[in-house]
Amino acid sequence: MPIIEPHEDARRRCLRTVAQGAIATGLVAAATAVTALIRPDEPVDPGLAAIAAVTAAITAAAAYVQRRVEDRAENTREGRS
Known about the structure:
mainly alpha
């Protein structure tokens, strides 16, 4: 099995988290649309999908940063720079 460099691993984790966030945001948008169809008399906040998208983006960035920090901490413990 090939060894994946930490930078590449961080990038893959970030992209995977972006995909997961996009799916979650799509589900929130779909639920919002269904709610609007079922209960047209109640206002639906379109900002809900935007909040979900921003949350997903922040989560992806955090996943990338966390992996990079873990790698640096591991290198420090092992005496590498």
